[in-house]
Hints:
Blueprint lengths: L26 E2 L1 E3 L2 E3 L6 E5 L6 E6 L3 H20 L2 H17 L1 H12 L3 H22 L3 H4 L5 E3 L2 E5 L5 H14 L3 E5 L6 H12 L7 E3 L4 H9 L5 E5 L2 H11 L5 E5 L5 E4 L5 H13 L11 E5 H15 L20 H16 L3 E4 L14 E4 L6 H4 L6 E7 L2 H9 L6 E5 L3 H10 L4 E4 L18 E2 L12 E3 L1
Parallel strand pairs: 1-5, 7-8, 7-10, 8-9, 10-11, 12-13, 12-17, 13-16, 15-16, 17-18
Antiparallel strand pairs: 2-3, 4-5, 6-20, 11-19, 14-15
The structure holds NADPH dihydro-nicotinamide-adenine-dinucleotide phosphate.
Amino acid sequence: MTATRTALAWEYSPAPEATDHIRLGERYELFVDGAWRPPESGAYEPTINPATEEPLAEIAQAGAADVEAAVAAAREALPRWRRLPALERGKYVFRIARLIQERARELAIVESLDGGKPIRESRDVDVPLAAAHFFYYAGWADKLRYGLAGRAVEPMGVVGQIVPWNFPLLMAAWKLAPALACGNTAVLKPAETTPLTALLLAEICQEAELPAGVVNILPGDGSTGAALVRHPGIDKIAFTGSTEVGKDIQAATAGRDIGLTLELGGKSANIVFDDAALDQAVEGIVNGIFFNQGHVCCAGSRLLLQESVADEVIEKLWRRMGLLRVGDPLDKNTDVGAINSAEQLQRIEALVDAGEREGATRRTVACRLPDRGYWFAPTLFTDVAPVNRIAVEEIFGPVVSVMTFRTQAEAVEKANATAYGLAAGVWTDKGSRALAVARGLKAGTIWQNTYNQFDPTSPFGGYKESGFGREGGAAGLRPYVRVS
Length: 484
Ligand code: NDP
């Protein structure tokens, strides 16, 4: 392993975000039927700050009996909620958006404390985008016919929603905003390691005076998710997470009259042609793979460089990686925060070890890491063969695997040589080339001369083992309605 680029020539002063105004409860219960209630089993688990390994709060763990109660509450609330004039329903969704804005600072800090992501990202990306999704779908509530080709629509009913730990609040917003706008009631399960912002969102639902039972939040582990998926009272499941669990959910729901959308993993190609603006491309590569520590389903984890510029791009990228600041997620200068959990760190380490064993060349930035917490320094692999595990499997960490190509056709072929199909980036000066390459790629989202741009008006979703169904935009309404 090569590890150069140690100390920076100059240092930033610490710029920590203040946390003294954050009042986390010692214990959080389940949010069912508009009220907080303890779990039937009496089980609580701590949620940990991954940057310090300190517990933040005790979290109730929902079991099968709690899933039963939450689904019953959602079922009970459904008739009145779906019959509410659409304009009124939209006002509730709008109010949630406004309350997210009002509590934006608190939500951003709690997201960074619970999940390890840099405050710059939770403050500037996660929370504003979460609010934007509620605003956007609030606007659709009374215009559903226009979004769905003028056809009459009915809500699906009670929807079960399972979200991962990489964008906890934002994924909850992606799921709840269209569901509510379309007149569904919901039971949402946040990830085990990041339940806090979903629970604050439950408080926001209360503040918005959302009718009881319309939104129910059940923290818990995989078994809670499995119970929700298998509950016969659920009319639609929306899941974001690993391909493995997605397949389990698909099998568990087979044969049932149930709507299903799966947003799963990815191994997205970021393709740089020799006519690209290389400095700009390097910024896009960094954003593509180091944003949120690489815990991003559409991360540009396979970097495909045209051979004639490969050495130059690698050199520029390596230099840029040495300037990334890894450390305290609450420091406003931090670029790369903590790995979300000890388990995820182990997964990253195992795949990186496999990369070295299989003969790829590893370079990891040698930066000072905090003594406690879960950390992985930005890492670059070259000499990667397409069959290596680091070229095939989702690492979900700050690790980029570089491969090269000679022709446009070879770039497209290599980009598509994956079981996934979530996203891709194309860096070129020529619009015609970008369009031609995009037409050849099997990926749900393709960015040209940029990466990781999200907007509530744009549909997002995958092909192949990246799942099916779209979230965002008018297309994101479709999974939440029955069209007659
Ligand atoms: P999972 O797919 O296990 O977790 C996603 C969500 O599903 C969590 O809320 C989880 O609960 C829940 N869940 C777990 N098992 C089941 C089940 N059998 N039925 C229903 N719900 C279930 O992802 P991991 O957290 O284990 O991460 C593993 C890998 O998955 C990562 O390394 C990454 O490669 C990939 N991943 C991809 C994501 C994406 O956005 N596409 C997001 C997260 C992970 P709990 O947290 O309590 O286990």
